[in-house]
Amino acid sequence: MITAYKILGKNAFEGFFGSLAQGREVYAPAQKSGKIVWAPMLVAADVDWRLDNTDMSPKEFFFPQSECLMRFKNAGGEDGRVMVPVAPLATQRVLLNIRPCDAKAFRLLDRIFVQDDMTNDPYWRDKREKTILIGQGCANPCPECFCTSTGCGPFHEEGLDILLTDLGDRLLVKPISGKGQALVKDLPEAAPGDIDLAGRIMAASEAAVNRYPGFEPKKLAGHTVLDIYELPLWSSLYETCLNCGTCTFVCPTCHCFDIQDEVKGEAGRRVRNWDTCMQRLFTEHASGHNPRGEKRDRVRQRFMHKFTYIPMRRDGELGCVGCGRCVRFCPTNIDVREVVRRMGEDAEAKSK
Amino acid sequence: MNECIENTGFRPRIAAFFCNWCTYGGADLAGVNRLQYPADFRVVRLPCTGRMNPEFVLHAFRQGADGVWVSGCHPGDCHYIAGNMYARRRFTMLKELLEYAGLDPGRLHFSWISSAEAEKFQRTAKDVIEAVRALGPVDAADAATKTMVMELRKVI
Amino acid sequence: MKARAEKIREIAKRLLQEGRVDVVIGYTRGSSPMREQPFFARTPEQADQLTWSSFCVGNTAKSLVQAARAGERAGVVAQGCASRNVAGLIVEKQVDRDKVVVIGVPCLGMVDFRKVEAQIARSEGRRVETVEEDGEELVVRGRGFEKRLKRKELLRDNCFTCQHRNPVLADELAAEPTAETGGGDIDKVAAPWEKFPAADRWARFRETFQDCIRCYACRDACPLCYCKTCFVDDARPQWLGKTQDMTDIASFHLMRAFHCAGRCTDCGACESACPQGLKMRRLTSKIEKDIRELYGYSAGMDVQAVPPMASFRPDDSDDFIKQGGEQ
């Protein structure tokens, strides 16, 4: 079936926004005190088409930094302990102008949270099913982006319901999923000239990303885990890492969490909070043993998890989408692109 | 004031940290002498005010205390010679910091009371309790105006 | 800046060649614009990678404790504030004076990348790609634009009010001493919430810290924070939770500020490391101001000094402490 591209003039956006917002909460990137954050859009005019990607990833929409999983209390007598689950999401939501890298990240996380019958996280699933993702292709990639090195790209469609391309005074609309088709069925069809223009924007954008430093994932393939594990690179790289965890918090694919019961008197709640493999206590066992007690081991783990272990188990798909946030925010400028490049080059050199 | 003694109205919950050698003894002496004051604080006994940790104060507020009272030996009388001297500087910095961040001054109290000063203990207890009581009950977590003491409380 | 960088390289190379140090802790060119990377040079060849610029926004003293624990003798490239932290670590016996060689750098202030970005209109899809220092100007370039900005107007907040730009202890100097202060009046900007009535201060605190994501980058960038187990990880009792509740966020920042009393040099590494751009110095400046005014002490100025929170005077003020005589 040939995709019917649609066209939406920006002066007609208000009507479309109205239909989007019917019974749904609409979110899009907005500026706030020098940062770009996800914010609720109350009216069509709130939407700013020209903003770049947000500072923090949108994973909070499905995986909040701090989430109550259930509450419980001692009811006394025959009732014993009463556990009350948390209510599911009340309204549908739309994430408008999400970038393709972040949408792909959700697909990656789906494979963690809802991978099969045994692992079916209801908290994640509920929110995912109730959220529509309308992406905007990146016409202006940031200097830190490296999506094309990770099997993603500035106009990549994986995970999106609709992909928009900003053509100036109008938007090219490409419905991708069934949900997306339904939303745009009443929009006028796009002219071939619009589709061509979008194609040129996409090509220019991909070329731009490719001009920024990236890496070739192929170089990592074909080496054993131990080859990479034992590279001398790790013994020097770890020194400047602060183990602060900023990279894990801003990353759209990082998903580790800690569960804790907070109890007060006869009542309590079970809370899930983001955790980070960068902290020493992350792997401390109850016995006191810590398999990653040395900073070198933790730093190595971060890169190998995303670029070796995950691809091993996911048919070569990397655990990174190239959004560039970790590059932008690392306080000591440890650049993942440089690290992965060195991993590949050093492993190749060693095998010769 | 009388409201307090007559057990009516709002009863504040105050966490009190007393040093074992002085204030705790003074409180004990007040009890032996049947000196009356409202029973609105719970005492945590420390060997010395030098043991006081600022986390204790924050923890007390976190657990729901309306006020915190720390009391120890007069400077010069410390059982461990100078524990209270170090504590004095910490108390100064802590009180300044917390009140700078918005804590009501009436919620954090410090005193020096020796083990012989039963009446001083009674007077101070009444003063502290009244100061906290006068601030009224802390609003529930969903109140429109957020105060520091309200938001320091852990809500499950 | 280039002259400083060259001198630093020259000194570092010499120290490593002579075997006076096992490692020189400094900075090298960052891969992102506006941020230089901390760098550990262990050979004279590696020393060639050292640099210095207006974007050295960490604190090299942070890595000294790591080096000391590994038993290494370290050279450390340090400007005024970082050298005060080196002195502080010596005072706190975390580092041996004879195992450190300070390469002092008289500082001209560091630039705040967020201030540069604010001039570049991110909403127009512009991103900074390169920044070049040209005397007192910064040449900022991106796709389709080039802008010249005045370096002095883009300095970090703490650099404007810096009281000690020259290193306080230095075995080598990478430049001639410069004007000691940054020109701004610290007393005008320290503890900004003091001018608000008590009832409004909490709202200010809240507004400053509510976006905190508890990544602890501030703590991890700070040379004062070297505890093997930080208080946030204490479990018995657990002082603060791991959630985003205001009590958990507030407890972290209040306690960390308190732990830095009498030790903080206002180096700004915390604010520079924060991914959310929190202005936490609004809180820490209060501590620093009280220490100065109450105890006449500035951290790290003297390796022989006893820090104020580890000492006392019999006549320390205690007006706020009830003596039991009130009626």
Biggest interface between chains: B-C, 49 and 51 residues
Distance between the termini of chain B: 33 Å
N-to-C series of helices and strands of chain C: HEEEHEHEHEEEHEHHHHHH
What share of residues of chain C is helical? 25-40%
- The protein's oligomeric status is heterotrimer
How confident overall, as mean pLDDT of chain B?
A: 92
The share of residues in extended strands of chain C comes to 5-15%
- Helical/strand content category of chain B: alpha/beta
How does the major sheet of chain B shape up? 4 strands, parallel
In N-to-C order, the SSE pattern of chain B is HEHEHEHEHH
Please tell me what the overall shape of chain C is.
globular
Number of continuous helical runs of chain C: 11
* Largest sheet geometry of chain C: 6 strands, mixed
Percent helix of chain B, as a range, is 40-55%
Number of strands of chain C: 9
Instruction: State the low-pLDDT regions of chain B, or none.
Output: none
Structure description:
The complex is a heterotrimer of chains A (352), B (156) and C (327). Chain A has helices at 13-20, 100-113, 122-129, 178-184, 192-211, 225-229, 233-237, 246-250, 295-313, 325-329, 336-351, and strands spanning 6-9, 24-32, 35-40, 66-74, 81-85, 92-98, 131-136, 162-166, 170-175, 257-264, 267-274. Chain A has 352 residues and is α/β, with parallel strands linked by helices. The longest helix of chain A is centred in the middle third of the chain and has 20 residues, at 192-211. The model of chain A has no long low-confidence stretch (mean pLDDT 92). Chain B has 156 residues and is an alpha/beta fold. Chain B has helices spanning 2-5, 23-32, 54-62, 83-100, 118-134, 148-152; strands spanning 14-19, 41-46, 67-72, 108-112. A 4-stranded parallel sheet of chain B has the order 2-1-3-4, with helices on both faces. Chain B starts with a helix and ends with a helix. With 327 residues, chain C is α/β, with parallel strands linked by helices. In chain C, the strands form 2 sheets. In chain C, strands 1, 2, 3, 4, 5 and 9 form a 6-stranded mixed sheet that branches. Chain C has a 3-stranded antiparallel sheet with strand order 6-7-8, with no helix packed on it. The longest helix of chain C has 16 residues, at 2-17. Chains B and C meet through helix 3, helix 4, strand 4, helix 5 and helix 6 of B and helix 7, helix 9 and helix 11 of C.
